[in-house]
């Protein structure tokens, strides 16, 4: 588009007082587009490259969604491990569908783990990303990734942190400050120091950068988004309570008369339901992180250390030097777990490892509790999570969400849905 | 901002090839703003009114979110009845909060029922909308409402249809064609003729207008949004099954040994849990509408008439001329319902009125079924809805959502959350 019609347009803008705007044009990669003032991210018109176009004529050349009208997103994935790998596979299958049906042009422009990284301007081919990634000789650089995404020709940069690393989450602020959005199943920021959490949330509010973390609680279950919508629409959370660990759900759903606690932990470990060291699950810290997150979502600014946690690791085994030693000694403590189980059963109850937030008292707790057989918590199967939310509107009957709350596929699905949510904030069709 | 710096800016745009855009300025109501090209709806900078500003200087005057940067939404509410009234009350309390915290400037610029309407450019004061509305002498005009919203100074127009009227839903296409978004708990489009449904969905895809209807199934429970996110992220729905009528949930949750079916229907009617004529609930049509909706969300294009529905209205009472006559004669049929209840109880089971969609066979059904006491459907209380969704990822353990699925407050909450979702598509902060 030559200078002269643009000037005409400038005149139209200033003289006519039209609430219109112009983007792109000139030598820019974007074709000129007219925007309505104030609200809509969608252009009212996208112009062709005809050099004789006058401003007035151009406005009449409005056309429906074209390639230039796609939502272009440059994604960096940090931590292509279990969840990251599942996510990249979901991307491989589904990104072409999203592009064709919804106009979302999402490209994976960076991959990194703690050692190396792979950058691309045009998007990494996902059919053989693993070979390419492992063949990369570039050293990992979490600032470099951000700079690369910002330099890509895709205007929406986002980093998806699929690690569980506190080191990585320390970069969120820096990334977000420079306009990069963050999506993560990593619980470290939301359950870490309030100061860092508040700084990230403040950036989210003030800088129009987005920070989504649906998969930090219940994996792909719609927990965080649901609570946020309740709060946004003026409902008031009274309490949130649930079974938030797939591992501990499995263990107590299986712990019935005639079974041994240590045998169940062993089976869970063998099936890959536990962390490499099962003490990481049995200590309750993971559940406490989720309780901290849910408390903050409900408006209670707790620190992880504020939450009393009933650890299921016997005191005597805390200092075992290896998980092998721990697993070997665990049977010595079967009797005391069996006693708890039998006492509960005698009262027609079951044991469940539960996290809860009480908004009125501002307290969170993590503990082993007993529930009658008819209670929703007693009805769980496998590695199901359950979340029970009492609010002004959902009282006395709570809103309850149940389902698999762990596993690479469902966690990746939760992360992916955050990415689609991010696109909506940039005008994606619904 | 005078013409000359704007011209400088135009030069910067064309000569520098910068992917920047300019909105507002001159005599427009919007202060001049610089936009990044391509993606973000948020301005990079909003300028003050200093007349000596040069374009270069102006860019340096970027400031954080200002009033001009608010998301401005003009809402028309059609049908201020039970749900509409609850919604307006939620708006009264929460809209100031959303404006202060999230920069959402949402104003109610129109109200209408079948008789009259009330229009306002600057937003109807919500503390006494009822008096104002009832005092309005303007006749209802569903085209006039659209024209009014489009003429308001708020750039995002939306009509919220809180009626259950097929007549009103016939206007959606016309509204959406002219750029007005539609939000509704009204089931008529999603369960009505496929042709009209497809036309509305096509507009949603092609015209960048939005159509949200979370509250059509399960009221405020996150059902529609969850299924949509699963499908969008590449999961495949296999089946959706549940108790979708708060009324019929209440009736069968209460229908235990020693109770009479007709007594329970009577209590439900007295508590306002049924439609004025309980046959409207007992016929199963409402559940069939929800099954049709869920089938379409899952990718199965069913018509309402494709769904076999087991009606609970005895054949002999279908032709009763009034609900009074129906209620009077219903006790004659208690024996046959008691027989069903006792047969189920003898097998350790309960009766539940269930809707289901089987994606593989492409079929939907609505019928009275028996479930063992341990089944999630047997655990319901009050007017709870439950939805159980089996997908590629959620199999064999389904994703389950339970909670109050009827009532003005929770339904209004579901509608309100759609409005916030709409704002996200226009760049609202998350």
From TrEMBL, chains A, B:
Task: Write out the entry's keywords from A to Z.
Answer: Amino-acid biosynthesis, ATP-binding, Kinase, Lysine biosynthesis, Metal-binding, Methionine biosynthesis, Multifunctional enzyme, NAD, NADP, Nucleotide-binding, Oxidoreductase, Sodium, Threonine biosynthesis, Transferase
Provide the cofactor list for this protein.
a metal cation
Residues binding NADP(+), per UniProt: 79-84
Q: What does this protein do?
A: Bifunctional aspartate kinase and homoserine dehydrogenase that catalyzes the first and the third steps toward the synthesis of lysine, methionine and threonine from aspartate.
Positions of the Homoserine dehydrogenase catalytic domain: 222-420
Q: Which residues participate in NADPH binding?
A: 163, 187
Q: Which Pfam families match?
A: Homoserine_dh (PF00742), NAD_binding_3 (PF03447)
Name the chain's protein: Homoserine dehydrogenase
Pathway stated in the Swiss-Prot or TrEMBL entry: Amino-acid biosynthesis; L-lysine biosynthesis via DAP pathway; (S)-tetrahydrodipicolinate from L-aspartate: step 1/4; Amino-acid biosynthesis; L-threonine biosynthesis; L-threonine from L-aspartate: step 3/5; Amino-acid biosynthesis; L-methionine biosynthesis via de novo pathway; L-homoserine from L-aspartate: step 1/3; Amino-acid biosynthesis; L-methionine biosynthesis via de novo pathway; L-homoserine from L-aspartate: step 3/3
* Keyword Ribosomal protein among UniProt keywords: no
Q: Where is the Aspartate/homoserine dehydrogenase NAD-binding domain?
A: 79-214
Q: What class of enzyme is it?
A: oxidoreductase
Biological process terms in GO annotation: homoserine biosynthetic process; lysine biosynthetic process; methionine biosynthetic process; threonine biosynthetic process
Name the SUPFAM superfamilies for this protein.
Answer: Glyceraldehyde-3-phosphate dehydrogenase-like, C-terminal domain, NAD(P)-binding Rossmann-fold domains
- Report which reactions are catalysed by this protein: L-aspartate + ATP = 4-phospho-L-aspartate + ADP; L-homoserine + NADP(+) = L-aspartate 4-semialdehyde + NADPH + H(+)
Q: What is the lineage of its organism?
A: Eukaryota, Viridiplantae, Chlorophyta, Chloropicophyceae, Chloropicales
Show the GO MF annotations.
Answer: aspartate kinase activity; ATP binding; homoserine dehydrogenase activity; metal ion binding; NADP binding
Question: EC?
Answer: 1.1.1.3
Binding-site list for L-homoserine = 275
PROSITE patterns under this entry? HOMOSER_DHGENASE (PS01042)
Q: Report the active site residues.
A: 290
Record Gene3D superfamilies: Dihydrodipicolinate Reductase, domain 2, NAD(P)-binding Rossmann-like Domain
What organism, scientifically named, is this protein from? Chloropicon primus
Q: Which family does it belong to?
A: In the N-terminal section; belongs to the aspartokinase family. In the C-terminal section; belongs to the homoserine dehydrogenase family.
